[in-house]
Specification:
single chain; 16 strands; mainly beta
């Protein structure tokens, strides 16, 4: 017959077996969620581990990038390039993508809190229509900041370096080759249509030391813009806008609009490269 001692022993053994079963169950559940090998091969469903197979780091670099470094900029992140040489004045900025749209803001920083030039850019296809522009540093120690204003799924690739010939000479040579169009402030518009055989076009906007506030649109059909640039600077000579755009499709038109007040006109020089 069972006694109080026998009943207690049975209850203790049953409790111990229950604890062992629960421990085995929890161990199996944890193993199901354990991370797999980070170096696994990429497949159609497994694109690899970010930062290892992609050849890029995620997030902004706190120290900034070296001159000439090419950086992959994810959506809603930024990169900066330092330009300490006061004997060089022109900086070349190149921006592209893998075929997806590009949304970016480019800023020139001089000193701790002065931003004399800003430019907003857009391209519907950063591979077919990349950005290539020249920015003046005013012969001062400067920083170029590029911010990807697109979503996380729209990364861009960008580099910034001191401009070298022959590209650095194009900005100064263009006014001698093409007659500039006088564009009044207050919303005046000037446009140039290119022949289908033209592969690249160059655009130069400058003022007589007054501010420059303009919008450039590259159209492929009536009001069907493929690329846009919007610039503001307090000095349209030291920071004139010079960009080179690709024109891969027929019927390309470059349209510039002066969005500054009436007293701030500029001259537009537009031609094929």
């Amino acid at each position: 017959a069972a006694t109080s001692l026998n009943i207690g022993t049975v209850d203790t053994l049953a409790l111990a077996k229950m604890k062992l079963a629960l421990a085995a169950l929890f161990a199996g559940s944890a193993a199901a969620f354990a991370p797999q090998d980070a170096g696994r091969a990429a497949t159609s469903l497994n694109i690899g581990t970010p930062g290892s197979g992609w050849g890029a780091t995620l997030g902004p670099s706190p120290q900034g990038s070296n001159v000439g470094d090419q950086q992959r900029i994810l959506g809603q992140t930024r990169r900066t390039w330092q330009f300490p040489d006061i004997n060089q004045e022109l900086v070349e900025v190149d921006m592209t993508s893998d075929g997806r749209p590009m949304y970016a803001d480019i800023q020139l920083w001089i000193g701790p809190d002065w931003t004399p030039m800003t430019m907003k850019t857009y391209s519907y296809d950063g591979y077919k229509r990349p950005l290539k522009c020249i920015i003046g540093t005013r012969n001062k120690q400067a920083t170029i900041e590029v911010k990807n204003t697109g979503s996380y799924e729209l990364p861009i690739t960008c580099s910034a370096t001191y401009a070298k010939p022959p590209f650095s000479d194009l900005r100064n040579e263009l006014p001698g080759k093409v007659e500039g169009a006088y564009v009044e402030g207050g919303g005046a518009v000037h446009s140039v249509t290119f022949d289908p055989t033209v592969e690249q076009a160059q655009i130069l906007l400058k003022t007589d030391l007054r501010q420059l506030n303009a919008k450039v649109e590259v159209l492929n059909a009536p009001n069907n813009y493929k690329q846009t640039f919007e610039i503001f600077t307090n000095n349209g000579v030291l920071n004139s806008l010079y960009v080179v755009v690709d024109t891969p499709q027929a019927s390309n038109t470059v349209r510039v609009r002066n969005i500054a007040p009436l007293e701030f006109p500029f001259r537009a020089y537009i031609s094929e490269v």
